[in-house]
Amino acid sequence: MGCCVSTSSLSTCSTRGHEEAVSPTCFEIGFCGQKRTNRTFSDHVIALQHLPSVRTRIFTNGKSRTSCIFTQQGRKGVNQDAMIVWEDFMSEDVTFCGVFDGHGPHGHLVARKVRDALPLKLLSSMHMYQSSQNGSGRTCFKGNSKKSDGGDSEKDGSAEDRLNSLWREAFMKSYKAMYKELRSHPNLDCFCSGSTAVTIVKQGSNLFMGYIGDSRAIMGSKDSNDSMVAIQLTVDLKPDLPREAERIKRCKGRVFALQDEPEVSRVWLPFDDAPGLAMARAFGDFCLKEYGVISIPEFSHQALTERDQFIVLASDGIWDVLSNEEVVEIVSSAPTRSSAARILVDSAASEWKLKYPTSKMDDCAVVCLFLDGKMDSESDYEEQGFSSATLQSNHSGNAVESDDGQQSEPSLQRNFTVRSSEESDSYGRLTPPEFEGNADTVAGEDQNWSGLDGVTRVNSLVQLPRFSDERPNR
């Protein structure tokens, strides 16, 4: 699967609040065996360089019709986080959301590449299925279909199972295609760099999720007493999970924690105490692919109800300092929905200063998707200090990358343990000399990766492996 998919030509689909005409963003795929219009996926092609023209796709701080997103760079160098919301993903009732947390020297580039290419691969998978079903009239997949009473219930259940199987296969194929593209990419070094991915597709009243790494998705819902509760939708895929550890050890990789961070299990090469990756699955990280670190996603399906209010996707800069319940409380109590993601990041920043005063704040990225499809008015949004749709500046005043990935964009580091500056000095033996320097340098494409520089809390990688001709045999 390549990095481009076909779309319909200029569409007159309703934008549900957008006054301007829609550019080629209404995908005429549907899930029925019949086409919605005479225009099909093959009418036009959308490629990576044309993504900025998709008006229902946002990837920088701002809002859409049903969501708001926000990222803020931490204090560890170039921001390695990326995020996306793509409404009208294939049809009007389909929305794609994702958060991607890079790590390693080129992690920010890997995260952006995955952010841009993975949704297109998912579209390509669905396009292939739709092409095979055109004219058959046998299968009709409606995202908001409801089970009926009597004899139709069994048929409805069967249709829901087929829809679930369809999305599972699409996620699996898309992640596999993304893995292959990164492995063969001529200009992107992913050997010791990689990214997490937490991706969801909301289709009507169904939610489909595929994820790797330790970025997380939760849902805010109301219980029987109309009180807000947090429901965790994904699992942080850490190396100490029994199934993950078993696979890694079976592939001759090693899983253990360092003495000064006993709660953080890491993945190590069999012949070197490197790289010490703090997750069991990731895109990239090809130095560990033979030793049990995989890019195969976990897939899950959630049937949404009227009690479900919103979904939050975030990198671990949020989860390291805020609980699921605290995140739901912050988002649900935000003065406007448009400001929810920014307020959540601001709250995390405050918690970093309070809980870890000697530590450098991690990067944070947040996507808030509101399930009733409603947002604030534009005037309310502007009062919060934002512009519409795709705001081209972020809260910390840093330059935001363009869609071609040529400018800097947000980052992230990880996990549960904080070191003081003095403790970092004793850890310096693990810091390669080429990465020594000031970790607070202004972010930019020519900036050295500073994830191992002046470590003040646990990073995704401990050190880079030393592969060379002089490496002794063990």
- What can be said about the biggest beta sheet? 8 strands, antiparallel
- How much helicity do the residues have? 10-25%
What number is the mean pLDDT?
Answer: 76
Q: Beta-sheet strand percentage?
A: 15-25%
Q: What is the tally of helical segments?
A: 8
Give the radius of gyration: 22 Å
Coarse shape? globular
Low-confidence blocks of residues: 1-45, 137-141, 386-400, 402-456, 469-474
Provide a brief overview of the structure.
Helix content is 23%, strand content 20%. It has 474 residues and is α+β, with helices and mostly antiparallel strands.
Walk me through what this model shows.
This protein is of the alpha+beta class and 474 residues long. 23% of the residues lie in helices and 20% in strands. The chain is built from eight helices and 19 strands. The strands form four sheets. Strands 3, 6, 7, 8, 9, 10, 16 and 17 form an eight-stranded antiparallel sheet that branches. A hairpin with a 7-residue loop joins strand 6 (81-86) and strand 7. Helix 1 crosses helix 2 and helix 5 packs across helix 6 (340-355). Mean pLDDT is 76; it is low at 1-45, 137-141, 386-400, 402-456 and 469-474.
Please give the structural blueprint.
Blueprint lengths: L4 E3 L36 E3 L10 E2 L3 E2 L3 E6 L8 E6 L7 E10 L3 H27 L18 H33 L9 E2 L1 E7 L2 E7 L3 E7 L5 E5 L9 H9 L3 E4 L7 E4 L6 E3 L5 E2 L13 E6 L4 E7 L1 H4 L4 H9 L7 H16 L8 E7 L7 H6 L37 H6 L48
Antiparallel strand pairs: 1-2, 3-6, 4-5, 5-19, 6-7, 7-8, 7-9, 8-16, 9-10, 10-17, 11-12, 11-18, 13-14, 14-15, 18-19
